Amino acid sequence: MRRLERRDFRDRRDYRDRRDYRDNWGSCRSRAFAAAIAAVIAASALAATPASLVPAPPVVSVVSAPPVVSEVPSVPVVSSVPVVSSVVLDRFAEIVVREGAPSATRLAAEELNFFLARIFGAPLPVVAQRTAGKTAIVLGDAAEDSGAAGVHGLPSSAGRAVSMKPPHDRDGYIIEAKDGVVRIVGNDDDVPDPVATAALPDEAPWQPCFRRGTLFGVYAFLERFAGVRMYFPGELGTCVPKTSRIAVPEGRITESPAFSVRRYGYADGPVPKELLDGSAGRSVPSPPQMDETSFKRLNWYRLRMETAHLACCHGAKTHCLAPETWDAIYTNACAILAAAQGVFDAMPKDGFTWARHCPCDWCAKNIPFSRWDTGFATDLVWRRTAELANRLSARFPHARVSQMSYIPYVRIPTNEIPGNVDVFVARRGPWAEGTAIGEREKDEVRAWHAKLGRKVSLWNYPDKVECWNLEMKHIPQLAPRAWACYYRAVAPHFTGVFAESESDRWLYNYLNYYVFSRLCWNPDSDVEAILAEHHRLMFGAAAKEMADFFDMLENCWMKVVARPFDTPLGPGVCHAPTPKELCTQIYSPAVLARLDASLVRAAEKVAAGSLEALRIALFRREYFAPLATVISKISKAEGFANASSEVFRSPEKGVIR
């Protein structure tokens, strides 16, 4: 696999000018022509999709066969289409993938055909060379026919050379419609074992690192022109409209993500068993059983998350700041970079505090330990980082060094930081939205950008963990608007983010992840439109009731995390609600009754046994029932006369008392 290069992590400060998300429709200049294109798109399966939602298509999985996908009502085909050149795909088209194509390209073909089979009612033939006169989708650097060869062996049916070089960006792609062919190309790696590409031993196996640009392009195509939406894997989380044809206006789309670092996760909870085996839906997926790793990897791909990790997580493995220790770190860095030039993680070992530190004489004499100063080691750590980066640059000109603004070296240092240092800034992130600390931390991100003259990466903590007084088991941490508000506010100042999102249930985060993925490709995405579309496609006639349900859960959760405070332990700490506040104010009997009533009304508005009904039942089981149960238990234990006396309906177990 190609070694990581500096350009893989380059500063993307110009994304608004360059608009990585841009549509270049050939000679489309006039408003009339643009209106005609819009009309053609309206005739395709994407007719019901708001234009504001196109920026972030989902991504695909690496499992051998994805789960069964749901269907939304068929999109009618408009017969009176304006006279505009377009490529019209139907069940008689074919998919072209050259022999010996990289595994990532073959995966793109497999996943494209999986969805087209559900859109058209039958899969398309996959061929190594285009059949003369046949409409085709050409993936990667496949050869279309036996005509004149182009730059990548991509001749046109008219004998003209077709220039379809992959974009320079690692994760970008090109979609071009012309002469009866839709071409999708990106940078692809040939990776026989994606799990083995996880960057570090402690990385999640469902976050593999290999280039899959064509795959991203396939999902952009499916979302943009066929109306496919993937909120989470499986029949209950995926929406695929049926239609007899897909009309793609002639032109070219080039898209790249706004942020190169696009990551979420860590221990984000188990996936509901019924989503893995398909028992929650109307049909059993193929294969009939999906393990949790495959499920999460599938979601990771479909949300178009990062394809290369920028390592920065306590790689120095020591608290010592003595010169001889950093000489040893330099030697270690040289050995690592000589084997594979990329990024050396110089971050000190975790848990560095006034009470837990290196006991050597040098550190005792030179580090100004302080119980209350969260940045007491700032200048020393950043001076050591700068010295290391300068020494390494002389021997490895293209190598990078990563370091994090983290307690106890959290402040902006007085020394200059070399240009080969990638800086992460660790702050609370979405959970501090609407608080004074949250605003201060946004200002700190802006200040780091100003200090460096280049953008930073972020490490945030929208999670639930016991060590930060915020374990809160069985309480949904659903807050997509908080994620959106935070990342949109600081978007001009960072080039990527890792959202550390521990949870006790994976499904609590699915909508947070979906909105996050959209913002990573286009920070200007209309989040309210994204959420409204989600409710409409997932719940149909019950969209309003389920929107109320989700909104109430988000409002409640933001009250749970509304009181952050500073300690020497690190970002993310907040004053958790007392049991009384939790049970009588935030999740009071009135609030729980409203949540229950929303689910009841939603179930009454949809047909029994429909996908919409099954989805509503899923959220009652996974969101409401655990919440009502835990609040009831706490109330009884604390002697509160509230939720313990309420009765809530459950389709499986009758009531929750």
Highlighted features:
657 residues; alpha/beta; Chitobiase, domain 2; 6-stranded parallel sheet; 17 helices; disordered N terminus
Question: Could you characterize the architecture of this molecule?
Answer:
This protein is of the alpha/beta class and 657 residues long. The protein has a domain at 6-192 and 209-258: Chitobiase/beta-hexosaminidase domain 2-like (Chitobiase, domain 2, 2-Layer Sandwich). 35% of the residues lie in helices and 13% in strands. The chain is built from 17 helices and 20 strands. It has helices at residues 15-18, 31-43, 103-120, 213-226, 273-277, 292-302, 323-339, 361-366, 378-395, 436-452, 480-490, 510-521, 527-539, 543-560, 579-586, 589-605, 611-638; strands spanning 21-24, 70-72, 86-89, 94-96, 126-127, 136-139, 173-178, 181-186, 229-230, 238-241, 246-249, 251-255, 261-265, 343-345, 400-405, 421-426, 456-460, 494-500, 648-650, 654-656. The strands form five sheets. Strands 1-12-7-8-6-4-5 form a seven-stranded mixed beta sheet, with helices on one face. Helix 7 (323-339) packs across helix 9, helix 11 (480-490) runs parallel beside helix 12 (510-521) and helix 13 (527-539) crosses helix 14. The longest helix is centred in the last third of the chain and has 28 residues, at 611-638. The radius of gyration is 26 Å and the shape is flat. The model is unreliable at 1-83, 143-163 and 643-657 (pLDDT under 50).
